[in-house]
């Protein structure tokens, strides 16, 4: 999540580079910011691979996944409404409301955050959870050789060229998650020794970091005055991001087990940091702050402090939300899940009946 926060920090809104200094100093400052701000792809991979790592070994259940979707939807509603109110306050304090079109659009997204793709990750993740049982079942029917062929083909198509060079991208959608899930399933099911080897993990991190950092430094040479984004380490579909994230997950899962209720409680609120730092509210809130950032190393440090403040504030608020929801909203979560699943089953059964009736009419017509 730290990687994702740094990736979404508005570096471009501050004058961290003084155009009057020499090329080497400008390149050094820009390269530092580039290394800090281009780890979003690794962060996205880590976020999803952690889920996929355990999902692929579960006894997949659509009902369980629907319950997960509902749990996520409640968190999104809280944050979409809270941040929408924050936007209204920020607009008022900064001297004026936006046009009716902008206000209406954000209002609709606030009420339907999943359906309107207000945040791409939760929407894509919910869609993935709904197809995950069938996808897992289909992959289990493949032989080891066919699964390996599928993985190699996907990596050859999507894994070697970043978005800025090869525009055939997955557009941060469910397709990205299906792609990563296919790769993780192969590793977990067919190369279990790799999942337990720290030597492989260190090799993954070294190779991935070498490709990512070297390419970033070389490309940045051509543009010393602005950050070059969407390169190897900032593209979650690229092999460098996948290698780094996979290595980190293997190291974590092969470490000595240590259970902490405090860490687990904090971790359950980490998604809120992403929701806050990618919402329109944060741009409005930081607009007056970024005006006071001066060029040079001091400016970079101040931006890092802003990023840390966002991380801490969002995490703290969501931990309070988590506590309040535990007392109020989630007290009857079992009944909520049963009601939602019952409604969806009725809709499914009705849809099947409609299709069967239509099929009978077509057959009779023939």
What are the main properties of this structure?
mainly alpha; about 375 residues
Largest sheet: none
User: Could you tell me the strand content as a percent range?
Assistant: under 5%
First-to-last CA distance: 59 Å
Radius of gyration, in angstroms, nearest whole number: 23 Å
Helix content: over 70%
Structural class: mainly alpha
Output the helix-strand order: HHHHHHHHHHHHHHHH
**Uncertain spans, ≥5 residues at pLDDT below 50?**
none
- The chain-level mean pLDDT equals 88
Instruction: Specify the overall morphology.
Output: globular
**Beta strand count:** 0
Number of helices: 16
Q: What would you note in describing this structure?
A:
The protein has 366 residues and is mainly α. Helix content is 73%, strand content 0%. It has helices at residues 2-8, 23-37, 40-55, 62-93, 100-111, 120-140, 144-159, 174-190, 192-195, 198-221, 239-253, 261-267, 271-277, 280-290, 297-327, 333-365. The longest helix has 33 residues, at 333-365. The model has no long low-confidence stretch (mean pLDDT 88).
List the helices and strands and how they pair.
Elements lengths: L1 H7 L14 H15 L2 H16 L6 H32 L6 H12 L8 H21 L3 H16 L14 H17 L1 H4 L2 H24 L17 H15 L7 H7 L3 H7 L2 H11 L6 H31 L5 H33 L1
Short description:
The chain is an all-alpha fold and 366 residues long. It has helices at 2-8, 23-37, 40-55, 62-93, 100-111, 120-140, 144-159, 174-190, 192-195, 198-221, 239-253, 261-267, 271-277, 280-290, 297-327, 333-365. The protein is built from 16 helices and no strands.
